[in-house]
Amino acid sequence: QVQLVESGGGLVQVGGSLRLSCAASGRTLSRYNMGWFRQAPGKEREFVTGLSWSGRRTYYADSVKGRFTISRDNAKNTVYLQMNSLKPEDTAVYYCAGNEDPYSDSVDLQPGMYDYWGQGTQVTVPS
Predict the structure, then answer these.
(1) C-beta of residue 31 within 8 angstroms of C-beta of residue 101
(2) Per-residue confidence in pLDDT tens, the chain, 127 aa
(3) 3-state DSSP assignment of residue 56
(4) How close are the terminal C-alpha atoms of the chain, in Å?
């Protein structure tokens, strides 16, 4: 079983940047399709971006396309989310999620497809 721990959240001004990290322990992430989700107060958890286990496939929500970048460092067993040009509507708790599926090198958009979740990290962009 893998444990995921997010870090890097915080308070940032409009237009600023943050890099979130999702560090894994217990298992190697090399065969995990990974995703980042976020949940704002009073809203459902939404897909932000995902990266297949090979790294060959990525997918971004329209709201973050061109501003956010997902990446992974298998040597460090860590997935990253670089967030640039942050907006107030990016304010949310951000969660990383993993799904071990070596037979499907894909990006899953639905939260239910992920077996493992971190505890979340708060990102706040005041207006």
Answers:
(1) yes
(2) 899 999 999 999 999 999 999 999 998 988 999 999 999 999 999 999 999 999 999 999 999 999 999 999 989 999 999 999 999 999 999 999 999 987 889 999 999 999 999 999 999 999 9
(3) coil
(4) 40
Residue of 125, 96, 97 lying closest to 12 (CA atoms): 125
Q: Evaluate whether 20 touches 94 at the Cβ level (below 8 Å).
A: yes
Amino acid sitting at position 80: Y
Q: Which value, in Å, is the radius of gyration of the alpha carbons in the chain?
A: 14
What whole-number distance in Å separates Cα of residue 127 and Cα of residue 125? 7
For residue 58, count other CB atoms closer than 10 A to its CB: 13
Burial class (CB in 10 A: 0-12, 13-18, 19+), 44: exposed
